[in-house]
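Aim 2, interim progress. The first record below pairs a target sequence with its structure tokens.
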Amino acid sequence: MTAELVFESRLSYHMMRQEGTVELDPVIALQLELTGGPKIYASDSFMINHAAWSMTIRRHKPGILLPTELPGWVNYTADAGKSQCVIDIHQSSERFASLLDMFKGGHASEITVVVEGLADSADYSKKWDTAAHASMPAKSICFEFPLPQSEA
């Protein structure tokens, strides 16, 4: 019941937030386009591939993220005829800093998220029971960044 979803990042933001005098941990926010993977349908038969996809990458302080913990969750909401899928990812401080440096150099060429919780359909598509489970776990995530081209 796992599926591989492949995205391209369209826009990326580094958000530094403050509430009063307290600085909150920074996040990387991405707008994504689902470019590969199975056709996925929600409980109401809406094709989730056409939803507005985004990702939030949060930095965890050392010692909070256990090595066996899942990297994140995929969440689905439908409101006023608009469907959104938000991927919430938690990364170690070191990996967050590395990803931030990579995103400062440009957009990821491909982001692959392996999710669990999609049922197979007879037509080779997948069904996400969004009525019963608005969230599903992300088992793994992979970011690909193009290497700089050497000058000839």
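The second target in this work package is listed in the same format:
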Amino acid sequence: MEGRHLDFEENLDAYGVQVSGTDLGEEMQKFETEAPWERSFTSLERARGMMGVFLDAAKELAALINEYKLQEIEAAIDAAHEVSADLPRGDVEALKKSFAEIERLKAIRSELRKPTRHTLLSVDAKGE
């Protein structure tokens, strides 16, 4: 990994996350951990391990954020239904606006339920 610049440490730092250990530019990686490793990692082994951990973390964070947003959108839909139920039936314009807001919220909910895909370059190859 020597000679290759990675922005992720600066990018993580911008959100208050620190990665401890040796810079990935050094061949053998030394860092303190609670995991019982029998030997040091090469910089490539550490980078691949970190990639897996970051992917898992991204999945976990996405699930937490999605769950939160879906709860909030459900509460907003319920509130919009209550507002709509309290409107006078003769006020057609207000009812139209209320129904449009409910449909807008349902469209957001529908979009949040869709999975997304992110493409990464392969790090494994047969015969490696």
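The chain has a mean pLDDT of 87. This observation will shape the mutagenesis plan for the next reporting period.
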